Amino acid sequence: MGRLYIHIAILTVCLVSVYQPGLAGLSLGKSGCRRCHNVEIDQAHDIGCNTCHHGRPDGYTMAQAHQGLISMPSHPAYMARICGRCHAREVAAARTSIHFTLSGEIGTVWSAFFPDEQVPGLSGLPVEKPIRTKEGLVSDLLRRRCLRCHVYYRGDAYMGTQRGTGCAACHMDIQSIPWDHRFHREVPDSRCLSCHYGNFVGWDYYGRFETDYPYDYRAPLVKGRHMARPYGLEWHEMTPDIHKKAGMHCTDCHPSGPCQGKRRRVKCIDCHLSGNRGPLMDQRRIGHRPGDIRVVACVACHAVWSFQDQGRSLIREDLADYDDWSYLSVQGDSEVERIIKDSIDLPYSEWPLPRMLDKISGRYRNGMWFEGFTKRSWGVRLGEDRHGCLSVMRPILDLSLSYIDSDDVVRFDSLRPDSINGLWLPYSPHTIGPADVFRTIYVRSWLEKRDKEVIPRPKAEDKR
């Protein structure tokens, strides 16, 4: 019996020695990184994990295998060195694209607050600690609250918003388990919606209008709990775009992505100038006459609804009272929502200091941005853009910024853009449908008035 125990002990030691970290429970048919990482890889990129991720595929333990590891090789810090070895042209084009630089978003906000100043680039947004100037406050808002869809950031902690960084932000789907490591040349709508959600263009294409933040607007309870909130939001089901109903995807109208190195403004007449439904040009139809098309946007008549969020108030607090924000805990931002919900049941002495991640640098800083609205509606408002073209307008710059520091001192109170006349800006709702009758009548009246102003009436002597 004693010898039996000795043999059992030796066998146990042998088995334990075999199951070292990094090898336990693994298939003997796999080698290298795939002994631990069960991933699916597309054929074009099945070139060995260490080609992009580096590390040591022959490592016996996790520590050995991860020496020199680059966990996110498509991150902007590495994409030129890693992805650029095979895709140099695409990487170079992506770096100057509007999705990478976010020049449109930064320029619109910065020019509204500081119309006489040069717009900084993404890396040039100033960081002030503590904040002392208006420029520092607006920059902090952009870096930590607004620019959450930059390719440096992996997205909020909600289903649907998480994504890769750099090239993988658009070309890889990280939602599935086991991790789908396949890159896709064509970008699916799910990747577009990981950034274009909430009351922004793209979300409306699917007929979604974001529900307001207050607790009273939350969906009914299901089995005593609130419903799941993909994207961290709830939404009203509105009329989808007619192109969505026809089965079209985002890239059907927006094929020239950043990797193609070119930017083309998509126009309705690219497809609708002629075709099976007859020519767009029609001297008898208001808005379709050759002269009308140059001065009236198609959405003026054909947008079924639009985003009209007014009175957007953004408040940075360095010593927040989470009880005050519990009614607005759903903020469309996972960082803000998490810290509010984790704190409201704790005694005041245990409340954590508010802090948020800088989405560009990847570093945390003290202070948290909270948000609220005065009014949110989906009516269509028409107006003239700076070129005199009649289009749908939205109050995208109806902003008010405030800052309360850790000493409870109000450093900035309701800072508004300097260019008050530019609060309402034109945009193209992705809610296309049959022309609205009443707006068509308004367009006719607007065109008639415009023609009278453009074409001077004949003078008295000319009538003879």
Largest sheet: spatial strand order: 7-4-11-12
Number of strands: 13
Q: Helix segment count?
A: 17
Spell out the helices and strands N to C: HHHHHHHHHEEHHHHHEEHHEEEEEEEEEH
The averaged pLDDT comes out at 85
Helix content estimate = 25-40%
Q: Which class of secondary structure composition applies to the elements?
A: alpha+beta
- Provide the gyration radius in Å: 28 Å
Apparent shape? globular
Alpha-carbon distance between the termini? 133 Å
Uncertain segments of ≥5 residues (pLDDT<50)?
15-29, 460-464
Main sheet characteristics: 4 strands, mixed
Classify the oligomer: single chain
Beta fraction = 5-15%
Structural overview:
This protein is α+β, with helices and mostly antiparallel strands and 464 residues long. The protein has 17 helices and 13 strands. The chain is globular. The relative contact order is 0.11. Among the domains are: 10-71, no CATH class; 79-101 and 148-253, no CATH class. Strand 5 and strand 6 (364-366) form a beta hairpin.
